[in-house]
Write a structure and sequence with these properties.
Layout (H helix, E strand, L loop, with lengths): L2 E6 L7 H16 L3 E6 L5 H12 L5 H8 L1 H16 L4 E4 L1 H4 L1 E3 L8 E4 L2 H8 L3 E5 L2 E3 L5 E3 L4 H13 L3 E6 L20 E3 H9 L7 H10 L3 E5 L11 H6 L2 E4 L13 E17 L4 H11 L4 E6 L6 E9 L3 H16 L3 E14 L9 H11 L6 E5 L2 E7 L3 H11 L15
Helix pairs in contact: 1-4, 7-9, 8-9, 11-12, 13-14
Amino acid sequence: MALIVQKYGGTSMGSIDRIKNVAKRVKRWHDNGHQVIVVVSAMSGETNRLIDLARQISSQPDPREYDQMVSTGEQVSISLLAMAIKELGIGARSFTGRQVAIKTDSAHTKARIESIDDKNIREQLDAGNIVIVAGFQGIDEEGNATTLGRGGSDTTGVAIAAALGADECQIYTDVDGVYTTDPRVTSKAKKLEKITFEEMLEMASLGSKILQIRSVEFAGKYGVPLRVLSSFDENNDGSFDQDFQDNVGTLITIDEGDNMEQAIISGITFNRDEAKIVVRGVPDHPGIASAILSPIGRANIEIDMIVQNLSTNGTTDFTFTVNRTDMDKTMKVLENEVKDEIGAKEILANNEVVKVSLVGVGMRSHAGVASLMFQTLAENNINIQMISTSEIKVSVLIQEQHLEKAVKSLHTAFGLDREDGDSTIAGL
């Protein structure tokens, strides 16, 4: 018997039929003798509907009241799923974040989990019931409802798995695992059987939307085995035998495997939400980077890639990237607070850029990754505008129009193409 935490997102809970399918899947696991905790998101579109209502009232809704409202979406889905499971003849009990209780800090709309009281959950599991928990929400020390930010249900699932020492946390989604790249960009993408937390963390931060980055951090910190698999796949799962563990979904693990067998790179990610800002004709003296970036930091704008050119005649160009949605805000800060202060010649912005990244722990033991990447892009007449590296990733900024060509050519160059036909993704 294993203790399994399963998380189902809004798509999996998107209709009554899909909720009934989730109930059948959860029942299979229960019938195989496992204890099951299910963490669910609000039904697809519901959170956006609630947010829209709030925005019709106020452009900047009060954070406490905002959390109080959006947390109701999950309350509906946990109740419906509990009803669906009971209709199949299995005991079930639903809990809100407050009822568990999932205790958080008071940072409304982006709260962090501080502790989880497992008493109520264990009582229900011991009674032979399936437990359904509302994802994305908790309660602060003053008893206020809090939410964990978009994608926070993943974090709830991992945190509960860590608190109860679960054998595995399974994230059910609309794809059947983590792929070498987005199959919608290249049909030659293949599913990975295994990936390290470190690689998954890089991929999540670089544009992969499969898992929320905080959930990966949490899982890595507490050593929770994490599996990504499809809620649309009707295979006869539930046994948790070796065949299931070896073949279903993608396992995210601490184990890096044998260096001899380690692929050079595990995947290629990309992020379309990039904008490039160039501050031209900046005086080249100590403290100039701080003078440019500090006001942007104070405006709560995150900066990604940074390049400073060599000095010419005492001036230089300073280039960096921000999220595309922050471009106008960044330009405003630079025009109002920075340009005249530092004597910059002009400020330019470009939102038609994308970041393409290679990720893999195999880079540690293989030389020449960057050079092969640059050579491949050059052969395809793709100009590199900026470069950023870490121990296990190489990122480049290129024109958006070249994205598909870049991903496909790099995927082939690094030997990631599948040998048998094209990728087919459940739910797409």
